[in-house]
Design brief:
Elements (H helix, E strand, L loop, with lengths): L4 E5 L3 H13 L3 E5 L2 H11 L3 E5 L7 H10 L8 E5 L4 H9 L4 E4 L4 H20 L4 E4 L2 E4 L4 E4 L2 E3 L3 H11 L5 E3 H9 L7 H15 L6 E4 L3 E4 L2
Parallel strand pairs: 1-2, 1-3, 3-4, 4-5
Antiparallel strand pairs: 6-7, 7-8, 8-9, 10-12, 11-12
C-alpha cells in the first residue's frame, strides 16, 4: 500500500512536519493543514484516502471535524486516525463516539502509527471490494459496504465502534468472546481501551437495537456472544 493520499490536520508545526516526513518516506502522498476548518475544506475537495486528525485544534476541534465528516455521506467512508495527547479512557471513548476509526496518543512511535495507517487503508480496500456483502442474524441486517444496520424495517444509527462490535459478534453467532478479544478485533492489538469501555459500547448497542438487543448476550465471567 503506497501512493495513497493522506491529509494531516495538526496545528503543531514540528509534529506536522514529522508526520509528513515519515509518511512520505513510506511512499504516501501527505499534505498538512493547521486548522479544523482547513481540514474540512481540503478533505471535501480532494477526498483523501485517510486523515490523521489532532483532537485539540483552535476554534473547530478534532471531535467536531470528525463528526461533520462522518455525518456527510460523501466523506463518511474516509478513515480517520485521531492523534492526540489526550489519552484518558473517556477521551478515547469520545473519539470513537465521534466516528474515529482509530486513536493514537502522543508521544507516538512512528512504526506503530504507520502500522495503524496501513491497517486502515487495507480495511478500506477490503470494504470497497465487499460492498454487496450483508450479514443477517434473526431480525438484524448488517450491510457491510454501506455501514448500515436494520432491525426489521427500522434503520439503526450506530457509531463506527458499535457497528464493528455488532459485525464481529454477528459474524460468529454462538461464539463467546472476552472483552479483550472484542477490543483486539475492533481496534487491533496493543490498544489502550479497557473492558469497561466495551461494556459501555455494548450497552449503547443493545439500547439502539431495542428488542433485538437481547440477541447480544452476556456470558458471566467471560464476555459476550451473539445468540446461541
Amino acid at each position: 500500500m503506497a501512493g495513497e493520499n493522506i491529509l494531516i490536520v495538526e496545528d503543531e508545526e514540528d509534529i506536522a512536519e514529522l508526520l509528513e516526513y515519515i509518511l512520505s518516506r513510506q511512499g504516501y502522498a501527505a499534505e498538512a493543514v493547521d486548522t479544523g476548518e482547513k481540514g474540512l475544506l481540503v478533505c471535501r475537495e480532494s477526498m483523501p484516502d485517510l486523515m490523521i486528525l489532532d483532537l485539540m485544534l483552535p476554534k473547530l476541534s478534532g471531535l467536531d471535524v470528525c463528526r461533520q465528516l462522518k455525518a456527510d455521506p460523501d466523506t463518511e467512508q474516509i478513515p480517520i486516525i485521531m492523534l492526540t495527547a489526550k489519552g484518558e479512557e473517556e477521551d478515547i471513548i469520545a473519539g470513537f463516539d465521534a466516528g474515529a476509526d482509530d486513536y493514537v496518543t502522543k508521544p507516538f512511535r512512528p512504526k506503530v502509527l504507520l502500522a495503524r495507517v496501513g491497517a486502515l487503508l487495507r480495511r478500506g480496500a477490503a470494504t470497497r471490494k465487499s460492498e454487496q456483502d450483508e450479514l443477517v442474524f434473526e431480525n438484524i441486517r448488517i450491510h457491510l459496504g454501506r455501514h448500515e444496520v436494520f432491525a426489521g424495517d427500522e434503520k439503526v444509527d450506530l457509531t463506527i465502534t458499535e457497528f464493528r462490535i455488532l459485525q464481529f459478534l454477528a459474524s460468529r453467532p454462538g461464539w463467546v468472546f472476552t472483552r479483550r478479544q472484542i477490543v483486539q478485533a475492533v481496534h487491533g492489538d496493543d490498544y489502550p481501551v479497557t473492558g469497561r469501555s466495551v461494556d459501555v459500547q455494548v450497552a449503547a448497542l443493545r439500547r439502539k437495537l431495542g428488542a433485538d438487543g437481547d440477541h447480544i448476550q452476556t456470558v458471566r465471567g467471560v464476555g459476550y456472544k451473539m445468540g446461541d
